[in-house]
Amino acid sequence: MRGLQLPLNQTQRIRLQRALEKLHSLSSKANSDASVTVADTIPVNYDDAFLKGHGTTDLNGELVATVCGVVERVNKLVYVRALRAKYKPEVGDIVVGRVVEVAQKRWRLEINFSQDAVLMLSSMNMPDGIQRRRTALDELNMRSIFEENDVVCAEVRNFHHDGSLQLQARSQKYGKLEKGQLLVVDPFLVKKSKQHFHYLEQFGIDLILGRNGFIWVGEHVEARDGMIVDQANNSEQSTVEKDQAYTPLEMRQNICRIANAVRVLSTLGFNVDADLIIETAELSSSLNIDIHDMLGSEFHVLVAEREAERRSLMTKRKR
Amino acid sequence: MEYVSPEGLRLDGRRPMEMRQIRAEIGTVARADGSAVFEMGNTKVIAAVYGPREVQNRSQQISDQALVRCEYSMANFSTGDRRRKPKGDRRSTEISLVIRQTMEACILTHLMPRSQIDIFVQVLQADGGTRSACINAATLALADAGIPMRDIVTSCSAGYLNSTPLLDLNYIEDSAGGPDVTVGILPKLDKVTLLQMDAKLPLDIFENVMGLATEGCKAVANYIREVLLENTKQLEYRRGL
Q: Would you kindly state one Gene Ontology biological process term found in this protein's UniProt entry (chain B) (predicted)?
């Protein structure tokens, strides 16, 4: 059992337990026996044809799970959706990664996958925005685009036959992320949705929910093309610009508030989506909870209770 | 010395075929991809799994399967006498190797080519049967990390003292010098992946002792399954729709 490592007093413990029990009772109605562990037999109708998907294997004619997770059935396909695993990329996913290496015509990005992902120089929009062949000069100037340890947002392009992963950043919205915080949560907590880029107007913040569980919370940037132009004579000017680009205190506090909301949700193991993050952040500000107190046990309990209430309302509405 | 009293009780009050109390907890190391604590009586072991991740040493990379590494260590405070053991002594290298081979046999390594899986196990309290406890902890940690496996591996030891087969030896019984049989099984496939013995035994008695250890493994397997299922359910219902 994954316990929360929080100092709870007696009442808080009871309140948290009650909230979690409520969540349990709400979800168990939908699927109670769908959870499997390693080497559990998955019940299927052997007379019908079925396809075995990820997380399953064939053992003496029986279908057996190879990971802990939830059994999903789509038409004929039977697979196990693993909880708490490394990120499994799908083409078109939006991911946030950290540059670990600048290599020949490519960057290597850490994206919580079993290997480092590759972002080719040729699959990236040039800072000047012109479509042209990449020259040797561009290659030499790669560090002016991304350096080691930069945080980058990109899209999954394709897989190679050897299982390595290629990314692309062919739009204004992708690229280097600055002035913010990178948070790492379990990838299964981020659901695939239409929109992974969020602009939270009331906070003036950009929120990027990477499908790989890397979440970016940063200052809002109009049309993300503010990359520093890669010319030697401009470098002096750009450093001056950098110094001037100062993030006001209020903005930093907003970033921290949103970031802490994400942290609270991820330690409680709740789904991390934009609405819930905003709701959590607003709950904290409406109750006048200081930013640093958001990581305390009292706020965790409050959020858990809130979530239990919200989900029970949702299920009532469905009926 | 008398290890089994005339009433049929062992030094710590157990019956010959009784196991110590087992307890497991998942998710004890926050930064690791998977982690677990496993206790068998006073033996307490912590395991952390990292990966599958990019291979650190490029020359070790295997193009069609994952590289599995394992490191076993004993905390300085784990035993009664507080002796500082040099890292990488013979005993711990051997146990590292044993655990690595056992775990590698059950991980579906071909699904994660060009990557590496690190398993770290540390003994926090040693009271006999650390080898088995480490394997059980490593299984739990691997399952927690979501690494695909053929089956869970569970392990348990048994011995033979005072012409009685004894299940799950503690430190005093272990140091009596009698045979100590450590068995690791895949319960679903009903196969043996690990079998070690450090003394001689007649064949018919050996079969008895090994049978006893296998029963112990199955009991451990049932418990581990329960813990894993509980953990999975909890993760699922917390996440919501």
A: poly(A)-dependent snoRNA 3'-end processing
- Measure the CA–CA gap between B220 and B23, rounded to whole angstroms: 10
Residue spans per domain, chain B: 22-239
Q: How far apart are CA A178 and CA A218, in angstroms?
A: 7
A187 and A284 share one domain = yes
Contact assignment for B149 to A38 by CB distance below 8 Å: yes
Cβ of A202 under 8 Å from any chain B Cβ? no
Name which of B28, B53, B228, B232 to mutate to probe chain A: the one with the most chain A Cβ atoms within 10 A of its Cβ: B232
* Domain B22-239: which CATH number of 3.30.559.10, 2.30.33.40, 2.60.120.620, 3.30.230.70: 3.30.230.70
Q: How far apart are CA B237 and CA A21, in angstroms?
A: 10
- The reply to whether A117 and A173 lie within a common domain is yes
> Counting Cβ atoms within 10 Å, is residue B182 exposed (0-12), middle (13-18) or buried (19+)?
buried
Q: Are residues A52 and A95 in the same domain?
A: no
CATH number assigned to the domain comprising residue A133: 2.40.50.140
Contacts of A24 (CB under 8 A, 6+ apart): B233, B234, B237
Same domain, yes or no, for A183 and A296? Answer: yes
List of chain B residues whose C-beta atoms are within 8 Å of the C-beta of residue A2: 26-27, 231, 234-235
In sequence order, what are the beta bridge partners of A81? Answer: A70
Mean pLDDT by groups of 10 residues along chain A of 319 residues: 71 88 75 80 84 89 91 90 89 94 92 92 79 83 90 92 86 87 92 90 92 93 53 48 72 93 92 92 92 90 91 82
Helix (H/G/I), strand (E/B), else coil: A168: strand
pLDDT of residue A1: 44
Q: For residue A11, is it within any domain?
A: no
**Which positions ≥6 away from A5 have C-beta within 8 Å?**
B30
User: Cβ–Cβ contacts within 10 Å for residue B203, how many?
Assistant: 6
Q: Where are the alpha helices (DSSP H) in chain B?
A: 90-106, 130-144, 171-174, 203-239
Is residue B121 within 8 A of residue B138, CB to CB? The reply is yes
Which two structure tokens, joined as six digits, stand for A29? Answer: 């109605």
Which two three-digit tokens encode residue B130? 């650390």
The pLDDT tens digits for B128-157 are 899 999 999 999 999 999 999 999 999 999
Residues 6+ apart with CB under 8 A from A122: A105, A134
CA distances to A152, A224, A251 from A202, rounded to whole Å, are 25, 20, 11
CA-nearest of A243, A268, A84, A213 to B238 is A268
Considering only alpha carbons, which residue of chain A is nearest residue B230? A1
Angle at A219 between CA A216 and CA A221, to 5 degrees: 100
H and E: helices and strands count for chain B = 4, 9
Task: Give the structural domain span for A145.
Answer: 84-177
Asked if A146 and A71 sit in the same domain, the reply is no
Same domain, A58 and A139: no
**What token pair was written down for A128?**
């000047």
Residues A119 and A67 occupy one common structural domain: no
